[in-house]
């Protein structure tokens, strides 16, 4: 081997040695980079998982809120219908309640604008309109018997001849009968004082049909009184009287015996009665 060739080979070996060292350090760097990349990728994965779970949370919250919205709007409509019920109940109350509570209503629950007298006037107008519309006109009477009846015939009506009140003019003082001006529910009441020494029966009568009986029994010199209240549903034109039952009976007058009645509820021309 020539000296030149020997050195060439030696140089080549040295270079190879250096190159090999370079390569191995390069490999180290690459694997370090790879592991760093691995860590970064792992963290990105974690981020993705976190983001996904946050997204799930947001979705759940959105659903929850939508649910709450539905509940709130359902509750709002329930509140509205309850308010309507309360309003109509309060109207109902005031169609049948007395002037004092009407005044209270005007003072405390009238429209919030305007002075108290103006609100009361507005309320009274509305009340009167409603009353005409739903209850119609008032009907009420009271009549008393001034003279004794000493020889009443069988089934003869008692004519209470002294009219104390006759709002609506439905009591006929000549016949002693009440004639319903409108269909409705009516209350009637009578009080009868006995004629001494008589046992007598009387009747509430509707259109000549017997409704109920009253009984008085007294020895001579004694007095008894009997009283009864009836509630009748009448059609317009029906009549109600008190009549004596047996022949030749008697009843005490002197304003002790009375016949009274009034309409409590009209059952026709009422547009809004439900349930
Ligand atoms: C109706 O009147 C009654 C008795 O006064 C009262 O208890 C009730 O609260 C009233 N209702 C309304 C809705 O005003
Ligand atoms: C009954 O009342 C009328 C009217 O007030 C009266 O004129 C009459 O004297 C009274 N009769 C009796 C006995 O009280």
TrEMBL record:
Region (Disordered): 86-120
Main localization of the protein described in the UniProt heading: secreted
UniProt keyword Cell cycle, yes or no: no
Residues annotated as signal peptide: 1-20
InterPro entries tied to this protein: C1q_dom, Cerebellin_Synaptic_Org, Tumour_necrosis_fac-like_dom
Keyword Signal belongs to the record: yes
Lineage top rank: taxon: Eukaryota
Assigned keywords, A-Z: Secreted, Signal
Comp. bias intervals (Basic and acidic residues): 86-106
Residues annotated as domain C1q: 134-270
Protein name: C1QT3-like protein
Natural source organism: Mya arenaria (Soft-shell clam)
Lineage of origin: Eukaryota, Metazoa, Spiralia, Lophotrochozoa, Mollusca
